[in-house]
Fold:
Amino acid sequence: MLDDRKLEVLRAIVEDFVSTTEPVGSKALAERHSLGVSPATVRNDMAALEDEGYITHPHTSAGRIPTDKGYRLFVDQLSTVKPLSPPERRAIQSFLEGAVDLDDVVRRSVRLLAQLTRQVAVVQYPSLSRSSVRHLEIVHLAPNRLLLVLITDTGRVEQRVVELPATLSDDDVGLLRQVFGARLHGAPLVDVPSALSDLPDAAPPAIRPVLTSVMTVVLESLVEQPEERIALAGTANLTRHSLDFPQTIRPVLEALEEQVVLLKLLGEVNDPTTVHVKIGEENNVEGLRSTSVVTMGYGPDGSAYGGLGVVGPTRMDYAGNMGQVRAVARYVGELLAGA
Amino acid sequence: MLDDRKLEVLRAIVEDFVSTTEPVGSKALAERHSLGVSPATVRNDMAALEDEGYITHPHTSAGRIPTDKGYRLFVDQLSTVKPLSPPERRAIQSFLEGAVDLDDVVRRSVRLLAQLTRQVAVVQYPSLSRSSVRHLEIVHLAPNRLLLVLITDTGRVEQRVVELPATLSDDDVGLLRQVFGARLHGAPLVDVPSALSDLPDAAPPAIRPVLTSVMTVVLESLVEQPEERIALAGTANLTRHSLDFPQTIRPVLEALEEQVVLLKLLGEVNDPTTVHVKIGEENNVEGLRSTSVVTMGYGPDGSAYGGLGVVGPTRMDYAGNMGQVRAVARYVGELLAGA
DNA sequence: ACTTGGCACTCAGGAGTCGGGAGTGCCAGA
DNA sequence: TCTGGCACTCCCGACTCCTGAGTGCCAAGT
Structure:
């Protein structure tokens, strides 16, 4: 159905359209890319590609532009992820190396990604559900009030205030600290429930009620409904080509403000070790139907702490952006694994 | 120079223009507002107002629109801050009351503010420099590595990793904890330097070098260059009226991505207990010259933890937005003071 | 001294017209 | 299977025309 030359024509169309933003015609295409055939032949190939749904034209006397399906074919078969240029690599390193804590890492990464790709960048904080407990601190705020501070191996810090059913002495708090510390230190968050399951029985009766409320808070807010966090940058990049979005960038901005939407985008990744691309209508998110999303998981050796990626017009430099997303994901993964 | 009727005309122009987004002409104005005079008279007044620089017209045969100076006069003398409607009050309460921690409070507030005002909302986290130490936790990560966790009275949690010049036993860490805890508990962050000044001398020689590095980190990263944080929401609101911004919303989005810019906006508030408005060119920030900014400080009884506000087109409902910003600022202030 | 109606003037913006040019589809010949 | 030729389509920019909202100013009225 599609011989090599037709594929070559498709590639040329995608590349030209991506770089010029203008529908590309048979003549210009035959000239610019040395295909060795005449415009007429290119026209025939174009007609075939259009029949198959890979390209369209906005109106009769205009050139062709790729469809979502065309981009999909391009991404899957016609392009290879572009490795970064040395200056880009240097930029990543110098940008990320000064980070002082997790917040800093995430904020720097997201800005970096936005700058590199010139798209909107999204970085998810390391998911609590895939982290382990590094430390659980219990601070005695008031006789009947505790502050729990959970610190994970990835550097996330989560805090919750616990109102107690009874007042507590400092010694009691020390006891609590010991009990929880011993059981939780180093445990993956998902294992916390089982690690704590026999706790009420094992503890001295005096502090049982208190212990139970602390347990409840720990389990509920840190394990069952762990809070996901996300950083966003580069929204101004959406305005670079007003042509890229049918009406306005409104729906896109709205979608990007929804944490849930972003989590969904980053979460739909099955294999965290490779770059994923969702093109146009492939996005299940209303409002992002005219955008493409490039994502990848990051984390140590193939497992994933979380995801990151970029959102841009379907008319984007896939090869380049995929390379950039992959590179940043790897750097961030290493950085956090080493922390 | 400007008699009462002229002021009334200005008010009418501002109100009509704000609600319709269209230049307002003498006839429509005379009809809609019962000024009791003819369009011709209104025209004369308009000419006077234009001479004084309070209004302009985009072209000869168009109606008048307010200038920045006109809005300024309107805000200063012709409008009163609009108190919230009962449903709005309820919305605020129900929106904020479920917050579990500081992050949650800030995120909810910023979304709330964006929804209420239908503008871009900005909320600054309670500034470290105006907070006190509630607790400083020292976690022993590795023999030569500590994690400092600072918890402030406003609920902020800041962490830093300290690499030590020597290895440390758990007992040493306990000692550190005691020493710092005793001196810092309850101290305003600005007083921390003096509270720690005699520390090296007072401490046992064995842990002095370690103590010094910890001190350095505390002072540098928590006191001298305290990290300011800011939350943003509602950027999609910028697109509601494309007419509002000369070219595109690009420069506005860019400005809003700069933390520094936002801090500057919120920081220029001298008296934290009242609402402040910066109109158009009054903004020193390149990129926000076509926007107005409504800000207020929040905090307990007149002092300020931080600032919050909204950014929108100069054509905004000043009275309403000022009321909304004020209300949210007060609620947030109370909420954090009680925490 | 204001206010008012009248009137000539201005000018943005929409509707209609037109021609150029880029691009297409198709066909017949190599 | 490719290619050159050719008729056809139709977007887009330029041009013109026209309408209507709105103004500025003047002279008369109160």
